[in-house]
Amino acid sequence: LEAAVLQRIPMEEFFSTPAAQYVLPILGEVPPGEPPDPKKCSPREYLEFYIFPVVLPGLAALLQKAEKEKCFEGKRTPFIPSDFLTEWLYNNNPKRKDESFTELFSIPFVKDWLKDHPRPPIPLSLLLSEEEASILIQSFWRGYRVRCDSEIQELRQWQKKLRDERHITEVVKRFWTKQEAKGKL
């Protein structure tokens, strides 16, 4: 993977003749010569001198991490590429050379964004391993099978009747009200 990413890609194979003059730079390589003024240079020069040397290594790291997380093997995965790339680019910013590593949710602009746009929780199906998921499914199934047993059904009906006759929920509420009143004195 690294060898393929680090090689120059001849664009003439993929595009018409005008686009064939462009060749992707090697990862992390800054073009030779003095960097142009970022406010006066052409878009191509800006990309070659200021964007590609930072973004391309980040994309290579993203691909390696995605491969390690087995993202290419299934349809669903808990790995979020945009989160990884945001964290990587923030921590590898040349302006932050001497600063320590910062986790994604500790990055200031990420904190601000998540205050206004909270993200939904990751589904449990993505967080559990296959073994953990199978244990949960098996325990649910065993519980269901036990609850279907006629003796268990009879016991549950008796408990329900007892709760209704003795007004257990009201008794519990009164008990906790008394306990709270004792705690306030």
From TrEMBL:
This is IQCK protein. PANTHER family: IQ DOMAIN-CONTAINING PROTEIN K (PTHR34927). It comes from Sylvia borin. PROSITE patterns: IQ. Pfam families: IQ.
